[in-house]
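Quick note —
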Amino acid sequence: MTRRLPLLAAALILLPQAALAHPGHGDAAGFAHGFAHPLGGADHVLAMAAVGLLAALRGGRALVALPVAFLAMMAVGGALGAAGLALPAVETGIGLSLVAFGLAAALGAGLPLAALGLLVGLFAVFHGHAHGAEMPESVSGLAYGAGFVAASALLHAAGIGLGLAAGRLRAAAPVMGGAVALAGVALLAHLV
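Predicted structure written out below.
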């Protein structure tokens, strides 16, 4: 079973990209629409999986603390976006989150847990704002929010699975972290 864990985690991360589950692809309302949203963009998938990777690399209390910090602050950002409150440079914040999370993973997540939690929580606000701002007016905000939190939690779990598998392969975590950071740089370059 432990040999299948990396394959399962990779499938959970890559499957949404094939499903084209981003809003606007067919009928969805409330929970289903919210669940589909984080799964439809590589930026969200990579960031949330990277949080799981960071949690696995740090271990111990981080396995729960980092995903919970992300989910809680993402919900705050989602509420701000749904309420129509502007947050400057949301896409830049999302791109920077990939760079920050990737570098933290590539360097072995050596920051203190409180610092990692602050880093994760800060950038989660940007991801949440993007989810909330893109919420269709025709869906229930509470159900939509529950959907995007549930999907995000699954992506964190997939990242934790990858991180635990990478822990057995010393070179894997820096490579995965570096790949996430490079994806963030590419996203930021696209914004310029």
